[in-house]
Amino acid sequence: xxxxxxxxxxxxxxxxxxxxxxxxxxxxxxxxxxxxxxxxxxxxxxxxxxxxxxxxxxxxxxxxxxxxxxxxxxxxxxxxxxxxxxxxxxxxxxxxxxxxxxxxxxxxxxxxxxxxxxxxxxxxxxxxxxxxxxxxxxxxxxxxxxxxxxxxxxxxxxxxxxxxxxxxxxx
Length: 171
Prior knowledge:
Number of strands: 0
Oligomer: single chain
């Protein structure tokens, strides 16, 4: 039987690239839309600590499960955990410093999700400090942008069954 893998690989690659393409705008616009749908900064002050606690606890849980899984699977294969012996761990201050982007576009180009969330947070808080007449103009724009990316994501997701076949066949 001839190998059809060479025909499946481009379609699988296109699907993965399409998912990557819509992921960042989806996260940014959903956060921005959520913030602009709030009526007041006071609501954000009330929800902020809960959201931060949820984010930190789920990140910690995911890191713990990932680390334990990595230790288990790598120790079974006899491999080393230290892939780069010259790597130095970053401090907490370095982490905080890298959260703030140097410009608006770099996080989107590099796919730095934390910086994108910081930008969405800054834009959302700034939006809430605008006058209500300005908010009435911008709120529909944010909602329309979010609806637009949802439609695009729907089109990409519609190809999931076919793409799954190509991805499985490419293995």
